[in-house]
Design a protein that fits this description.
The protein has 11 helices and 10 strands. The chain is α/β, with parallel strands linked by helices and 262 residues long.
């Protein structure tokens, strides 16, 4: 799918004037942005500007942090993710998460992938679902003969692909990735990037990355955040990755993507 066709697609997630707080501290202020479907959107910016806070708020992972709260609106297909009666567990099923460090459960490869479907009571053939998830995560050929072995025995890159398979197994529409390659070697990083490009045909992907080369290689859209004097992160510029990296509208953006600060 070309970037041009992606940008006209109805957004899956829309943020409207979102502020995020930890207690009285405002970590993110006044974020408005629409994430297009079946695209990879990269969130970039200096450390401490709220990228991971924003990412985790989208599937309500921040609910688990004492004192965390959100204002404004976060819409998923037009429904407020923080609206009255919205079940955060269902939000997390539809909007999956892959973390910075691979974190397989201390279970077999099979049970890692089957865990979410079992918890959610997903009907159907579990063996088929596990295989399909591992295939989509480009891991099936590596592990098909050792499904009962521990997921912790895999290499770092394989563990991260297992975590992606685990996220896929609950049949989400959106996958959030918080620096998924920062703990991996260059070869494993490239494999994860290639996997993301394959996955976007089925999923909407939002990735936080400090790696400008990765954002330029792997994303369709890029959102640049930085910090104000109040230490709250805010959106400086967003658009197609090619435009933002080659023809940024803001001097702040140009300085960041060119490595002059950050």
């Amino acid at each position: 799918m070309s970037i041009d066709s992606v940008t006209v697609t109805e957004p899956v997630i829309r943020l409207e004037a979102v502020d995020l707080y930890y207690g009285t501290f405002r970590a993110v202020r006044d974020i408005s942005y629409a994430f297009p479907a079946n695209a990879i959107t990269a969130l970039i910016g200096p450390s401490g500007c709220g990228k991971s806070t924003l990412l985790r708020s989208i599937n309500r992972m921040n609910d688990l942090v004492p004192g965390a709260r959100a204002t404004g609106r976060m819409l998923y297909h037009g429904e407020d993710l923080y609206g009255h009666g919205v079940d955060p567990v269902e939000v997390r099923r539809r909007i999956g998460m892959v973390f910075q460090k691979p974190n397989p459960f201390p279970k077999s490869i099979y049970d890692n992938v089957a865990f979410g479907p079992r918890v959610n009571g997903i009907k159907g053939d579990l063996d088929d679902l596990v295989e399909a998830s591992l295939r989509r995560a480009a891991l099936w050929d590596d592990v098909k003969d050792k499904l009962r072995q521990s997921g912790l025995a895999l290499s770092g890159g394989q563990q991260q692909r297992l975590c992606i398979a685990r996220a896929i197994a609950t049949e989400p529409e959106v996958i959030l990735m918080d620096e998924p390659c920062s703990a991996l070697d260059p070869r494993s990083t490239l494999q994860i990037e290639e996997l993301m490009l394959e996955l976007k045909t089925r999923y909407t992907i939002i990735i936080v990355t400090h790696n400008m080369q990765q954002a330029a290689r792997a994303s369709d859209e890029t959102v640049f955040l930085t910090m104000g004097d109040d230490r709250a992160g805010y959106l400086v510029e967003a658009g197609t990755t090619s435009d933002l990296f080659t023809n940024p509208r803001s001097q702040l953006t140009e300085d960041y993507v060119s490595g002059r600060f950050g």
